[in-house]
Amino acid sequence: MLDGWARKRIDPALDAIAGSLHAAGVPANAITLSAFAIGVAAAVAIAVGALWTALILILASRLGDGLDGAVAKRAGRTDLGGYLDIVLDFAFYGMIPLAFVILDPMANGIAGALLIAAFYANGASFLAYAIMAEKRGISDDARGTKSLFFTTGLAEATETIAVFVAFCLFPAWFPVLAYSFAALTAYTCLSRVVLAWKQFGEPNGT
What is the mean pLDDT of residues 148-167? Predict the structure, then answer.
């Protein structure tokens, strides 16, 4: 829901940093892989209870996730870059709640599992919609130019990162936050299914 709003405000800064990285010859895919490696480190930090370290690593990882696209815009986008970006994003989103489950299985197990399941279903709805949108030539750059069509929803990247930050700041509230965000994510998935039904349905309703 907030991704379009956030992109308009952070893109100028990302573009400035990306210009320096591109001039230095840093490839976009290297930034993507580095951002994911930092995300893995964040998950490890959470699992061992180093939550302030994890918070810094999460923010650094997502900075890299924004920079790779800005660098790719200058260097030339590739299908491989778009593929790596989306796959590693989904891997990162699953790792963080899993790390909190590892940190405290008894308190966080069910809530974390439910949130990961909601992410899984939402990711499927997102990717399936993107495939159909590509097939029909539908595009939208409100969230920045992407390799795949990005549909709107209550639970997008900006909201997800905000919740991950809240997990780190208020770990005792993880179950409540996870249940709540799982509900928002499920709603986003359902709304996307309804949107697909309306937009992609055949005249006979099938």
Answer: 77
